[in-house]
Amino acid sequence: MFLINGGGELILEGYRDTSFQSDDDDAKSQLGFVFKLSGGVVAWKSSKQDTTVDSTTEAEYITALEAAKEATWMKNYIQELGVVPSIAEPVVIFCDTTEL
């Protein structure tokens, strides 16, 4: 187990949000996410979604997928660095003040 500042172990958590069809010109939705490692921001993204969708549900699923892909990549990268023996806990991604 790896400790930081005499505190707890390394914890990777994410936050994500979607704005449905926020661009009036092309009707594309915005997606955004941020990942923190033990309280410090280590990755973030804010951009238009590549596709135009017809519902908020589709927009939310696309954002959840993008955030999950980033979480998987980051978890694997941290394990390969050997900073911690392994990250057994799943990465928590908070969505619109709820947890996935």
Automatic annotation (TrEMBL):
Q: What is this protein called?
A: Secreted RxLR effector protein
Q: Name the source organism.
A: Sesamum radiatum (Black benniseed)
